[in-house]
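hiii, so i know i said id send this last week but things got crazy w the move. better late than never?? heres the sequnce for the chain we talked about at the cafe, plus the structure i predicted for it. fair warning i was half asleep when i ran it
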Amino acid sequence: MRVLLWHVHGSWTTAFVQGPHQYVVPVLPDRGPDGRGRAETWTWPDSVREMAPDALAREPIDVVILQRRADEELARRWLGGRRPGIDVPALWLEHNAPQGRVAEMRHPAADRHDLVVVHVTRFNALFWDTGTTPTVVIEHGVIDPGERYTGELPRAAVVINEPVRRGRVTGTDLLPALASAAPIDLFGIGAGALGGVENPPQARLHDEMARRRVYVHPVRWTSLGLSLIEAMHLGMPVVALATTEVPEAVPPEAGVTSTRLAVLQDAVRRLVEDPEQARLMGKAARAAALARYGLARFLADWDALLAEVAR
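okay and structure toks below
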């Protein structure tokens, strides 16, 4: 099956393209948001092909995966007038938690009978209003980086992309208070602006995360961060805000989740000071992540849905 999708979220796409299909990603000369092409900091298989818009018009596409408002019009123009959902089967993959007042959280693909909206968490499915549009939930899956945890450094790891711009959404403002409990090392795109490590390659990022004693997830309101799931796969204990999908993802034996800052500070301090407890919680975190967010389950769920919509 030939699947057209845009390179929007690199970590999610890296897991998705491990499947058995042919994946087409648009590429533009500037490699901007509408045409990033293949990933540069993740390893993708040869089954992922870059294709310029003028070549897409002649490409036989079996399914289009829309992820942004702009994708539907881009697909129609670049596929030579073929309309997603009408002339070629289409899914709308919704990565994000909705924004705004609860009563106004209406999805842009609401009341569509030619699409299926795919949510990545049950929290998102609950909060988005999709009207009569069919919906499914396919929870995240990640490539298992292996149990790398050493916890040799009595410090906390935090991964936030664009921490300055996203601010309160990602809990960037909470970092000073959490850092009073233990030193924090920040990683991610834009982390350099706050003295962190700027967007290291994924393999190096995983190695560096796993050297820290605990993983801290200060995010207030996003979907379920893949960095959290990756940290659990690495065997790291977790301290996280109990918001959005996090309480479902992190069982009590794997870490501490709370909306009380003092509880989070105490948990960070306690885990940094007790390597054995941190190690045991990290073991539980890895077991939970493998059971719920394994790659095989993720790909099987997607294969079943793609086969259904392409019929």
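btw The chain has a mean pLDDT of 96. thought thatd interest u
miss u guys!!
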